[in-house]
Amino acid sequence: MSEGRSRLADIIAVVILFLMAMGAVMVFSAGANLSYEFELRRFYEYPGLRQIMFFPIAVVVLFAASLPNYAFWGYREKWYKWPALWLLVLAITLLVLVLIPSVGTEVNQARRWLRIPLGPASVSFQPSELAKWTMVCFMAGACAKFGPDVRRFWTRFLPLCLLIGLVCGLIVTQDLGTAAFIGVISFLMLVIAGARWWHVLMPLPIGVAGFIAALYQEPHRFDRLLAFLYPERYADSVAYQANQSLIAIGSGGILGKGLGQGTCKYGHLPEDTTDFIFSIVGEELGLLGTIGLIVLFVLFICLGLLVVLRCRDRFGRLLAAGIVLTIGIQAALNIGVVTVVLPTKGIPLPFVSAGGTSMLLSSAAVGILVSIAARSAPVHMLTSDYLSET
């Protein structure tokens, strides 16, 4: 392993460690609540303490995932030895189980979690997060295996579309945002792999129709869209969360009120430790804090794109691109929602929002990206033969 390669891998890991550390601190601060007394024996009930507990575990997961060769996740000559395939089967099975009322746990009128009892506490697991990352790995392996044949509509492209539809269809009834996100990422990976544009555009009307149907299926989804278009009409109801988010960010000014000094977290801003943690960053750390957080994500995306350019293996390029796209687009969507550039939707901020499932699985994905970076060709090997190959 050359010094240049290990340096790039290390920088990516350090950027993610900074994001996770910032997330642990901000969730701990946002988790402050005046409605109950602190008891150490019930530490798992406090979002801030849970995040602090998951932080070192996520660090271990990141470095453990970076040790094996990323080719382990690639397609095998014998399909039944392909790890991504069995992970996808597991993810689909869990997505079916979570829809069963007696098995899945319903929170905020959505059944998205499985409860795993561990003594006095119970750990919640979100199958859609596993499905999201498994689809990235599976699509990279399948497209790398198919090569130029991914342009064959009936035998390559259509079966992959049906698989995407199956996964998104299982998720959309409970989580429209995640289902749409997985669909977008999957089709972007098909485009990167070389699928024909008109093939990709063909399922678009079906996707739009399904999206509209999902909006009308749950009235609150359509209400959120109306609140985004006409915020003044819904200021005290559906648009309340968005308005409070802007108040939190605006009240922070340039330097912020100071870490732990924010007031919007005391019952004024719903979901302050999860989907709207960026608002707390803006209130307590100000414009400088939000810019610093955005810079970290931009730096990660730039480093990830460098990995994509340096990797000469088709599977490695597709997998690295999928990981970078997933984290980058998810971060952009979350920040867009929090700043009311986009309609309100439950999309967490990667590595920063509270949530063990998201943090651990995202850390594993970045660990694989680090493995690709460590085993990719250094810059001086990016010669004309590679350019002609791509």
- Radius of gyration, in angstroms, nearest whole number: 21 Å
The share of residues in extended strands comes to under 5%
Quote the average pLDDT: 87
The total domain count is 1
Low-confidence stretches: 379-390
Key descriptive features of the protein:
single chain; 390 residues; mainly alpha; three-stranded antiparallel beta sheet; 14 helices; 64% helix; 5% strand; globular
Q: What features would you describe in this structure?
A:
A hairpin with a 2-residue loop joins strand 1 (104-107) and strand 2. This protein starts with a helix and ends with a helix. It is mainly α. It has one domain (3-375). It has 14 helices and 3 strands. Helix 3 (83-98) packs antiparallel against helix 4 (127-146), helix 4 runs antiparallel to helix 12 (314-338) and helix 12 packs antiparallel against helix 13 (356-374). It has helices at residues 3-30, 47-66, 83-98, 127-146, 153-172, 176-193, 197-201, 204-217, 219-229, 240-252, 277-310, 314-338, 356-374, 384-389; strands at residues 104-107, 110-118, 121-125. 64% of the residues lie in helices and 5% in strands. Strands 1-2-3 form a 3-stranded antiparallel sheet, covered by helices on one side. The model is unreliable at 379-390 (pLDDT under 50).
